[in-house]
Structure prediction request, 216 residues.
Amino acid sequence: MDTGLTDPGAVRTRSVPHPTRRPGERPVRRLGALLVASLLAGACSGGPTGGPGAGVAHTASSGPPGAAPTVLLGVDVPFLTALVAHNQRTLEIVHLSEGRLVDPELRTLAAAVAATEADELRTARTWLRAAGRPTSGGHDHHGHADAADLARLREAAPADVDRVLRTVLVEHQRAAADLARAHRAVGGSAPVRALADRVARSRTAQAELLAAGAVR
Prediction:
């Protein structure tokens, strides 16, 4: 699946001025600042990021000659790491429901979610690897499905699997949409903002479909 983003093969560094706040942006930027501060504190970074390197661009030079460079600013790294963790967890959730779902529309949606997030996972890992950052996000973090949610789905009776999947996945996707909107608001490099925009829109739409199916 084509993500429509700039080739992630090469990453370089440049100075980017702090974005000027426009009227009406304060509440969204405050949410974004809180989320990013949490990530930079280590909640979703796979390691410490609050040292001298936090908040600056990360650089690498892998990729084919002449590839369009992608700039990763400090704020991009925790977002991409959190996205990796989210998508890894989504794929676990979908895997636990495979072959057990009754509603054919839910089966189709679950397959589409898995395909989309596997593609995003490859992109995020490629960019992180090129920047010399960890590419694993294997941990629980606030607002996303946790080990207890996975256990609920794993242990659900056949007649309850559809309902439990909808309950677990709808909150998981809403949390991802919130995270992506926050990153989109606080800035970062253009390609990563574009990815965040797509994540925000797709997770919002998925959550709406999951919620609508639950009340049919």
